[in-house]
C-alpha cells in the first residue's frame, strides 16, 4: 500500500481515535473531546495566542446532498452568529488544495470545557445556577429566533458551559430558517423543541404563541426588551460562580 502524500505546507497530520486529522500548524496539542452522529471535536491550543479552542471535523460532509446541505447550513449560521450565549466561529480551514480534492473542512470555535448534560451528571445544580443557565439559554434563543432561525436540536449536550457557568448554544447542523420547509422528526425525542412538539407552524418566528401570556401562566417568558424569569430579576453574576471545574466536553 502506498503511503499518503505529505501534509500540506502549514498543516500536520495526527490520528485521533482512529480518525486522521490534518489541521493547521498553529493549532497544537490535539486532544479528543467528544463525537456525535455528524462529527468529532478535539481541543487544541492556538499557538499564536495561547488560547484553548475547539476544532470540529464533520464526518464525510460531501458524501451526499443531505450531508452537504447540513454542513453548509452549520457553517453559514456559525459565521453570522455574534452573541455571548451562542457559539461563534473563530476560523474555518481545509487541508485540501484543489476543488477536486475538497473532501474535508474544519470549524474552529471557542473551547468551553463541558456541556450541560455532563455537568448535570457530575453534580446537583442549585436553583440559582439553574436560573442563571436557563436565563443565558433564553437570551441565546431570543437572539437566534430574532434572526428567523429555529435550532431544532436543543438539548443538554448542545449547551456548552465553562467553569464560570457561562453558557453557549452549540450545533446548528439541524437549524433552519423559520419560514423554510421543515422535517418533523429530526431531533432526540425527549429534547424536542416546543415548536417541533406542538407543530411549529402555529408558532411565530420567535418560537412563542401570538398574543399576551394567559392568566395563571408561570415560568420563563420572553419580553420585547429582555429575557428573565417572570416575576423575578435576572440572576446576578454570582449565580454562576463555582459551576465546577470544566470537564472534557466541547
Helix and strand layout, with pairings?
Blueprint: E1 11-16, E2 19-24, E3 27-35, E4 39-46, E5 52-58, H1 65-80, E6 91-93, E7 106-110, E8 114-115, H2 116-122, H3 127-146, E9 149-150, E10 159-161, E11 167-169, E12 176-177, H4 194-197, E13 220-222, E14 227-229
Antiparallel strand pairs: 1-2, 3-4, 4-5, 5-7, 6-7, 8-10, 9-12, 10-11, 13-14
Structure description:
This protein has 250 residues and is α+β, with helices and mostly antiparallel strands. The chain folds into two domains: 15-110, Phosphorylase Kinase, domain 1 (2-Layer Sandwich); 114-240, Transferase(Phosphotransferase) domain 1 (Transferase(Phosphotransferase), domain 1). 19% of the residues lie in helices and 25% in strands. The chain has helices at residues 65-80, 116-122, 127-146, 194-197, and strands at residues 11-16, 19-24, 27-35, 39-46, 52-58, 91-93, 106-110, 114-115, 149-150, 159-161, 167-169, 176-177, 220-222, 227-229. Strand 10 and strand 11 form a beta hairpin.
Amino acid at each position: 500500500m502506498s503511503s499518503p502524500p505529505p501534509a500540506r505546507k502549514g498543516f500536520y497530520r495526527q490520528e485521533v481515535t482512529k480518525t486522521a486529522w490534518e489541521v493547521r500548524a498553529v493549532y497544537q496539542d490535539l486532544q479528543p473531546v467528544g463525537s456525535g452522529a455528524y462529527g468529532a471535536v478535539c481541543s487544541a491550543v492556538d499557538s499564536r495566542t495561547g488560547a484553548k479552542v475547539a476544532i470540529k471535523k464533520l464526518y464525510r460532509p460531501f458524501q451526499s446532498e443531505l450531508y452537504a446541505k447540513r454542513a453548509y447550513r452549520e457553517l453559514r449560521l456559525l459565521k453570522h452568529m455574534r452573541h455571548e450565549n451562542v457559539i461563534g466561529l473563530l476560523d474555518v480551514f481545509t487541508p485540501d488544495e484543489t476543488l477536486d480534492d475538497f473532501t474535508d473542512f474544519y470549524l474552529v470555535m471557542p473551547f468551553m470545557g463541558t456541556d450541560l448534560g455532563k455537568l448535570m451528571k457530575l453534580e446537583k445544580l442549585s436553583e440559582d445556577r439553574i436560573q442563571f443557565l436557563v436565563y443565558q439559554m433564553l437570551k441565546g434563543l431570543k437572539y437566534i429566533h430574532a434572526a428567523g432561525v429555529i435550532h431544532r436540536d436543543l438539548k443538554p449536550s448542545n449547551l456548552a458551559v465553562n467553569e464560570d457557568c457561562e453558557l453557549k448554544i452549540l450545533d446548528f447542523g439541524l437549524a433552519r430558517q423559520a419560514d423554510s420547509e421543515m422535517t418533523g422528526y429530526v431531533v432526540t425525542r425527549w429534547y424536542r423543541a416546543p415548536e417541533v412538539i406542538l407543530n411549529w407552524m402555529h408558532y411565530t418566528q420567535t418560537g412563542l404563541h401570538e398574543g399576551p401570556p394567559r392568566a395563571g401562566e408561570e415560568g420563563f417568558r420572553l419580553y420585547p426588551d429582555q429575557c428573565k424569569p417572570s416575576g423575578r430579576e435576572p440572576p446576578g453574576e454570582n449565580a454562576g460562580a463555582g459551576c465546577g471545574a470544566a470537564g472534557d466536553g466541547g
